[in-house]
């Protein structure tokens, strides 16, 4: 483990130290990493990114960061294979080797995060049919969540803040459910609104007609589900989730969209502890989101608000809302700065004693980042985040993260 980490660090250091020479080498590698038939009917491109991340975490770790140490190093190698078969068929595979899907979730891990087959029946982009394991169509942040496209290192609050919602057990009483917010995050048992890009398994139809685009997917797990059950080998489609998004692009600068998702969020292991006569399908996560983006000269802006309801056994409906406003400014041809404001709110539920109480702690977080793209293969980012939540304890207020990305 230490040997290959040293190799990765050394590779990135050399690349930063001699960027122009490295650019020439990586350009040659780019040219070599594809195969194509003479008539162009078959073409396969191999590419990848190497991310080296370092974290200073004000314990306890916030969001979907799992390390118990104040300092943490997280390498990630991502490999992509894009293959075209004529004009109608396309396949994509993403393989990752790292220290868990979320930093610190494992000592070491390797897995296929995405694999899909797509069929496009027309020459125009009106209809695409897709099956496999791939990101949710809900929301718009997922389209830029990869390290090369995300101005930040971490995700917005809606995509990573852990709630007191469990998927493997159920609260016995409202008081027991409300007591969870007075403890620190139990990340092995609790869920966020969306677990990052939610690479769940299933099928989708999507396309674009003039200024409008649409997407609808049928998946094996909810948008809040944990990565360990995203693969169809671990969870079937007995209790599916449906998600969709409608988008409108009135011109090149603006993009607007509305998303919705519905499906059970409890796992089969929780079925034995449900109230009498109830099934997993009686307890769903229902979510709606609105997203907007705008580009003007050297500025880019994004905003997204998500409303989500969890039907909690023995409690009732637990509602929450979260939003973020994000901006990115291009300082020079190579440097950029970004700022993101996040907030999340929780509605009251019956406390079982005749009153009502918010079911989790409201919170806010501000993220600031600076990035520098040395070449079209090499990028560095620095992020500082400060968060605060209502209540007597904090889940790590300060975070400093650095990331170097080598793209080939």
Tags for this entry?
mainly beta; 21 strands; globular; 408 residues; disordered N terminus
Architecture overview:
It is a single chain. With 408 residues, the chain is mainly beta. It contains three helices and 21 strands. It is 9% helix and 48% strand. The strands form three sheets. The chain has a 16-stranded antiparallel beta barrel. It has a two-stranded antiparallel sheet with strand order 7-8. Strand 9 and strand 10 form a beta hairpin. Helix 1 crosses helix 2. The radius of gyration is 22 Å and the shape is globular. The N terminus is likely disordered.
Mean pLDDT: 93
Strand order of the largest sheet: 2-3-4-5-6-9-10-11-12-13-14-15-16-19-20-21
Instruction: Please provide the ordered H/E string of secondary-structure elements.
Output: HHEEEEEEEHEEEEEEEEEEEEEE
| Most strands sheet | 16 strands, antiparallel, barrel
- How much helical structure, as a percent, in the residues? under 10%
Shape: globular
Distance between the termini: 23 Å
Give the low-pLDDT segments: 1-7
SSE class: mainly beta
Strand content: over 45%
The radius of gyration is 22 Å
Strand segment count: 21
Number of distinct helices: 3
